[in-house]
Amino acid sequence: MLTNDFQVLDKRFTRYAMGNVHLETLYTGSRWAEGPAYFAAGEYLIWSDIPNDRLLRYDETDGSVSEFLKPCRNHNGHTVDREGRLVSCEHRGRCVSRVEIDGSVTILADSYNGKRLNSPNDVVVKSDGSIWFTDPTYGIDSEYEGDKADAEQEGSYVYRIDPASGAVTAMITDMVKPNGLAFSPDESVLYVADTGATHVENGPRHLRAFHVGAGGALSGGDVLATCDTGLFDGFRIDIHGNIWTSAGDGVHCLTPQGELIGKILTGEVVANVEFGGIKRNRLYICATTTLRAVYLNTRAAFRPN
Ligand code: MG
Questions:
Q1: What pLDDT, in 10s, does the model give residues 191-215?
Q2: Sign of torsion, CA 185 186 187 193?
Q3: Quick one: DSSP state of residue 80?
Q4: Neighbours of ion ligand 1 (CB under 5 A)
């Protein structure tokens, strides 16, 4: 029997949800939990508590939670690159940064066309080493999640950092507030959430799918799915290509074609998720004040080398 934490909307979802498995609460006390990133080598998860200007760390080996970094320039999204380094979106720093293996911090991108970025929100690293990130204005809209400031960029774009030259290129310029992003397992599709409904009446609350061509050139960009409760913010892709995305009532599971087949109900707004655990079959969920986790019968997509 599935517990009440799961809501099945399509029989296909029962392949991934397991009986007698409960959603666990691992920590409570965040103001706005975001940006989870799992370090397999150390068996721990770090995540952002943006208004409290800190990163937290959940240790899988003993279940303890500690402050990992405070202050942290209001980090939002994170990822771990293919060399195991932490890549961060900094609201207050208005940049994308990376912690090197000696602990020093490198600023990878803080401007485009000679103007400051808005406030990088979420980030993903492609297998060719290129770093893709979104740059909406949430971190400069108020003092709550960064330093309030006027935008210097004309819009909120999705950028690519070239792995060889470090050049920053705007790849998507027609979204209102691009937010979470991830590649399909074979990297032929880039999914990007647009949370523009926060700023535009009846604005976007959807995911779009872009075809990724040679050198990262994008085409397409059709709307794949529209969120039925709240907004799609951050998300991750499993080994089957399913999209496990944040939403207003929990985590939604979408097929690669964008069909909503099931939900994990959290009772709090979810901002982002990450696969962790030794087998990468445990979904960590950043749900406003709490860090949750649930085991699934699927695993993180590992992109081909
Ligand atoms: Mg986000």
A1: 999 999 999 999 999 999 999 998 8
A2: negative
A3: E
A4: 121-122, 179, 233-234
Instruction: Give distance in angstroms: CA of 121 to centre of ligand 1.
Output: 5
Single pTM value for the model? 0.97
Residues in the chain predicted with pLDDT less than 50, given as ranges, are 304-305
- The pLDDT tens digits for 164-186 are 999 999 999 999 999 999 999 99
CA of 19 to the centre of ligand 1 (A): 31
In sequence order, the 6+-apart residues with CB closer than 8 A to the CB of 124 are: 79, 131, 132, 133, 181, 182, 183
6-295 CATH = 2.120.10.30
Cα of 207 vs centre of ligand 1, distance in Å, is 13
CA of 86 to the centre of ligand 1 (A): 17
Is residue 143 within 8 Å of 150, Cβ to Cβ? no
Residue type, 100: E
| Ligand 1 centroid from CA 181, angstroms | 9
Specify the pLDDT at position 199. 97
Q: How far is the CA of 75 from the centre of ligand 1 (A)?
A: 11
Q: How far is the CA of 137 from the centre of ligand 1 (A)?
A: 11
Classify residue 53 by its DSSP letter: T
Q: Given this model, what pLDDT does residue 16 score?
A: 98
